[in-house]
Amino acid sequence: MCGIVGYIGDKNCVPIIIEGLKRLEYRGYDSAGIGIINGKECKVIKTKGKVSELEKLVYKEKLESNLGIGHTRWATHGEPSTVNAHPHLNKDKTLFLIHNGIIENYLSLKKGLLKEGYEFLSETDTEVLAHLIDHYLKLKHSLFQAVRYALNEVEGTYGIAVIYKGEPDKIIAARKGSPLVLGIGDNENFVASDVNALIAHTKKVVYLEDGEIAEVYKDKFETKTVADETIIKEIHQVDMKIDELSKGGFAHYMLKEIMDQPESIYNSMRGRLVYDEGVPKLGGLQGFEERIINSRRIILAACGTSWHAALVGEYMIEQFAGKAVEVEYASEMRYRNPIIDKDDTVIFISQSGETADTLAAMKEAKKKGALCIGICNVVGSTIARESDAGVYIHAGPEIGVASTKAFTSQIVVLALITLLLARKRNLSLPEGQDIIKHMKKLTEKVDSILKQNDYIKSIAEKYVNSKNFLYLGRGYNFPVALEGALKLKEISYIHAEGYPAAEMKHGPIALIDDNMPVVFIATKDSVYDKVISNIQEVRARKGRILAIVNEGDDQIETMVDHVIKVPKTHNMLTPILTVVPLQLLAYHIAVMKGLNVDQPRNLAKSVTVE
Ligand code: M6R
Question: Is the bond preceding 479 in cis, omega lying within 30 degrees of 0?
Answer without folding.
Answer: no
